[in-house]
Amino acid sequence: xxxxxxxxxxxxxxxxxxxxxxxxxxxxxxxxxxxxxxxxxxxxxxxxxxxxxxxxxxxxxxxxxxxxxxxxxxxxxxxxxxxxxxxxxxxxxxxxxxxxxxxxxxxxxxxxxxxxxxxxxxxxxxxxxxxxxxxxxxxxxxxxxxxxxxxxxxxxxxxxxxxxxxxxxxxxxxxxxxxxxxxxxxxxxxxxxxxxxxxxxxxxxxxxxxxxxxxxxxxxxxxxxxxxxxxxxxxxxxxxxxxxxxxxxxxxxxxxxxxxxxxxxxxxxxxxxxxxxxxxxxxxxxxxxxxxxxxxxxxxxxxxxxxxxxxxxxxxxxxxxxxxxxxxxxxxxxxxxxxxxxxxxxxx
Amino acid sequence: xxxxxxxxxxxxxxxxxxxxxxxxxxxxxxxxxxxxxxxxxxxxxxxxxxxxxxxxxxxxxxxxx
Amino acid sequence: xxxxxxxxxxxxxxxxxxxxxxxxxxxxxxxxxxxxxxxxxxxxxxxxxxxxxxxxxxxxxxxxxxxxxxxxxxxxxxxxxxxxxxxxxxxxxxxxxxxxxxxxxxxxxxxxxxxxxxxxxxxxxxxxxxxxxxxxxxxxxxxxxxxxxxxxxxxxxxxxxxxxxxxxxxxxxxxxxxxxxxxxxxxxxxxxxxxxxxxxxxxxxxxxxxxxxxxxxxxxxxxxxxxxxxxxxxxxxxxxxxxxxxxxxxx
Lengths: 348, 65, 251
Hints:
The structure holds three protein chains of three kinds. By secondary structure, chain A is α/β, with parallel strands linked by helices. Chain A has helices at 9-19, 34-43, 57-69, 80-95, 122-127, 144-161, 171-175, 216-236, 256-271, 289-296, 313-319, 339-347; strands spanning 4-8, 24-27, 50-53, 75-78, 100-106, 137-139, 164-170, 177-181, 208-209, 240-243, 250-253, 276-281, 283-285, 301-306, 326-330. Chain A has two domains: 4-198 and 225-236, Rossmann fold (3-Layer(aba) Sandwich), CATH 3.40.50.970; 241-347, 3-Layer(aba) Sandwich (Rossmann fold), CATH 3.40.50. In chain A, the strands form three sheets. Chain A has a seven-stranded mixed β-sheet with strand order 3-2-4-5-7-6-13, with helices on both faces. In chain A, helix 1 crosses helix 6 (144-161) and helix 10 packs across helix 11. Chain B is an alpha+beta fold. Chain B has one domain: 2-Layer Sandwich (Alpha-Beta Plaits). Chain B has two helices and four strands; from the N terminus they run βαββαβ. In chain B, the strands form two sheets. Chain B has a two-stranded antiparallel ribbon. Chain B has a two-stranded antiparallel sheet with strand order 2-3. The longest helix of chain B is centred in the N-terminal third of the chain and has 5 residues, at 14-18. Chain B is globular and about 30 Å long. The termini of chain B are close together. Chain C is of the alpha/beta class. Chain C has a single domain, classed as 3-Layer(aba) Sandwich (Rossmann fold), CATH 3.40.50.970. Chain C has ten helices and nine strands. In chain C, helix 1 (23-37) packs across helix 7. The termini of chain C are far apart. Chain A binds chain C through residues 24, 26, 50, 52, 54-56, 58-60, 62-70, 72, 74, 88-89, 92, 96, 197-203, 206-212, and chain C through 11, 40-44, 46, 53-54, 56-57, 59-67, 70, 73-82, 85, 102-103, 105-106.
């Protein structure tokens, strides 16, 4: 599987999931992620897998909860308004410590918003998509290749930490065609799943998948334990890419599709003699705090480039302890900034 | 023979009204540790082991041997 | 040799239900059916939100607690993952007929090969006695303090009749557990609903007309009588769909 194939981002996610041993997909139609469902609908029946178009996003995430309870790899995909509906189920997955993959090919909001690309679910995804104290692992691919690679990685991390993973893409990446080398086949089973409900076979005490704890002390204890796990994740799992940061005086921070636009702007600025670099978070939760903290001592200012009203700015300011100013270069509603717009903020 | 797991009894009385021989009653003198007046049999010899009481018991209090 | 004993498929945990609540009877019937079919080791149950939320503590088989109303979707996931296992949901009227109505109808319409035990006691018990989708006209609850009014609150939903209009379900029946004879009939229906799944016949639902002495505000004994006088006239017992019988008639 090491040869390059030309694929749409959404299809790369679907194929990568299948290669990662995912044999259960549940979804509900919504633009701009429908290719994932369509791909699964074609492929799953041929590999003895399950494709099921659920009656709603809510039902889909609860079907995911059902399969996840049995210890198997399972996924759903949707776009922003649909993800909002899944939040209940995502919270239950987190509360029951179940691994699963949720793909969010973001579109503009709030409300029904639009169907054009957006990154406006950043807060929702990184702060905990649902009620209660929890996080999901959150990956922000910037290419079709990364969509494939991070899909496999997201499954793996979800199982390692027994929690949901979210792939936070956007409409542009989903629809974009690029050459991709598909990841090697993998499967669940690397990590202990003796907790799963698979039938007791009359050989063990029953397993219970549950998120209800009526004893406040017990619930508090579990929340603290979960957050200890999160602290470990914050240490071990942040992923990022640094670009021309060695001598940078200005640091662009951007993820996903806007990171690609920003990279062009950085190249153009360099041509004009401006010392600008970029830090591209690949995980947006855990947020790559360390490289930003380091950069804060070297650069004069940061520029946050996003397809929302500047939701990541808070995380940047926290990471750099507000040591340097953070400018915004933002578009919303499905609009994309041009490299010139980013360049203009770099040159400000 | 009727055996009552008295500690499980919540004193709901559904067994009492189900008994065709009318030989069950809720105790008038005793409470179990949960504070319920448990069921007791007034005339064990009259029991016909029909299991009506156990059938209606919501708490698996009654075993019939 | 015991003539009547607690079924093996129930744990030793003490039911948290109120005195006289028929949840306990239905739990026992489900466990008896599991015992008699010898499926305990490959059964997975899905508990709802409502009074029976902690049903997972009472059955010895593997159990999952689902979000409010979502048990049929969760069960669908489990069944698709483990098609050779036996999957059942246990849900109340708020869970199944109100917030989870979409999941209920859709799982039934797919003919999902699962068993659904539906407890209809016409009230939300866990939250302290609010109006349910199945509360009767005139029924006084915390949220219908002047009695359920059809003009503003609509008519109670008849789930068995509703689901029987669908093509896919295998078996839809309504039973009750307010006397010995009815408990025995309920047992037979529940066992058939599990047997159907074992035989791959598809979606089976048993609606059990039940009581809530606490929130109905009456003694347990009175509440069983109230089932006869008030519930059953609106919710008639009977088999609403049975593909076995249809096949026989057609054959």
